[in-house]
């Protein structure tokens, strides 16, 4: 049985890392894409992970598949074709915060018939994000995967990572980002995304809406350096974050979520069964430390820590 199967975009994060003597920005081609990031983060932290997605028949696509392989993520269900490999151009400001521009390609063309249902139903968790909901064909494939998992009793985890540049309007984004909520068991979102999906800025009320109106078991809201808010079994609590010198926040949320999922999978075939608050607090603290290590380094996947790093560093 596979611990975590992630479906969605894998792409090149063309990330600004410096300027030359003529003050021209310099960019490096980092591997990225939120679902792929989560799969790698989980694999580095000891989980068995697989990825379903699509890249171009080009050098970037071959490179991304090699990155998954090198990090222990099963890439055998990754497809090629449908245009060039997708790119995200990531500019970073002086505080490490990012801004995105996308050059879409192959990730948009993943079809439902390219989704391996047997892999999904033999997984403990199916994970996806909202970027693949922005394109009709890939949206169909993603929703099909989530519904297949839900129907077969596989836990479904969702990261509604909002990228305004990928949607025609905010109204369109809300419509499609809320569509899969009824089949979701675990959700991770940012403070900015909570009101988008629930209409409430209040952590307690927003998480209540997600939990009660959509029957979502575990709600996690990342709070940057302040840690993470959690709703579980009608209890709400915050686990403090870890202070670090930030180099780049790209991939921090994905590391956090991958860490949470990897720790849950260690609990057995039913990762949420019998879970109580003290154990969950330890899991979230572990994820906060993993995310902090990622923030202290540059790039998304290259910055993600191993299990020994998270366990061995007293932050």
How would the blueprint of this fold be written?
Elements (H helix, E strand, L loop, with lengths): L1 E6 L3 E9 L5 E8 L1 H11 L4 E4 L1 E2 L3 H12 L2 E2 L4 E2 L6 E6 L5 E6 L13 H5 L1 E7 L6 H16 L3 E5 L10 H9 L7 E5 L2 H6 L4 H12 L3 E5 L4 E6 L2 E6 L11 H14 L11 H19 L11 H6 L3
Parallel strand pairs: 1-4, 1-10, 2-8, 4-6, 5-7, 10-11, 11-12, 12-13
Antiparallel strand pairs: 2-3, 8-9, 13-14, 14-15
What does this molecule look like?
This protein is of the alpha/beta class and 315 residues long. The chain has one domain: UDP-N-acetylmuramoyl-L-alanine:D-glutamate ligase (3-Layer(aba) Sandwich), CATH 3.40.1190.20. Helix content is 35%, strand content 25%. The chain is built from ten helices and 15 strands. A hairpin with a 5-residue loop joins β2 and β3. α1 packs across α8. The longest helix has 19 residues. The mean pLDDT is 94.
């Amino acid at each position: 049985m596979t611990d975590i199967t992630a479906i969605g975009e894998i792409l090149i994060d063309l990330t600004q890392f410096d300027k030359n003597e003529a003050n021209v920005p310099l960019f490096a081609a980092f591997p990225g894409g939120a679902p792929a990031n989560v799969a790698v983060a989980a694999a580095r932290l000891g989980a068995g992970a697989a990825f379903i997605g699509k890249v171009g028949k080009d050098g970037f696509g071959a490179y991304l598949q090699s990155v998954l392989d090198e990090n222990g993520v099963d890439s055998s269900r990754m497809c090629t074709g449908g245009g060039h490999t997708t790119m995200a151009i990531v500019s970073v400001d002086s505080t490490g915060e990012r801004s995105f521009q996308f050059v879409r390609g192959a990730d948009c063309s993943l079809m439902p018939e390219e989704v391996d249902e047997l892999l999904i139903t033999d997984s403990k968790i199916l994970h996806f994000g909202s970027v693949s909901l922005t394109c009709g064909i890939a949206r169909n494939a993603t929703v099909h995967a989530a519904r297949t998992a839900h129907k077969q009793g596989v836990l479904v985890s969702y990261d509604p990572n909002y990228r305004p540049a990928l949607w025609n309007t905010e109204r369109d984004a809300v419509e499609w980002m809320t569509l899969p909520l009824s089949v979701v068991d675990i959700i991770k979102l940012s403070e900015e995304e909570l009101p988008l999906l629930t209409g409430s800025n209040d952590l307690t009320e927003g998480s209540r809406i997600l939990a009660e109106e959509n029957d979502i078991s575990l709600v996690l809201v990342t709070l940057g350096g302040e840690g993470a808010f959690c709703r579980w079994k009608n209890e709400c609590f915050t686990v403090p974050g870890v202070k670090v010198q930030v180099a780049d926040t790209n991939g921090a949320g994905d590391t956090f979520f991958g860490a949470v999922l990897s720790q849950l999978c260690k609990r057995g075939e039913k990762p949420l069964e019998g879970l109580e608050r003290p154990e969950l607090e330890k899991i979230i603290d572990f994820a906060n430390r993993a995310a902090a290590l990622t923030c202290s380094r540059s790039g998304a996947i290259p910055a993600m820590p191993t299990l020994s790093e998270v366990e061995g560093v007293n932050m």
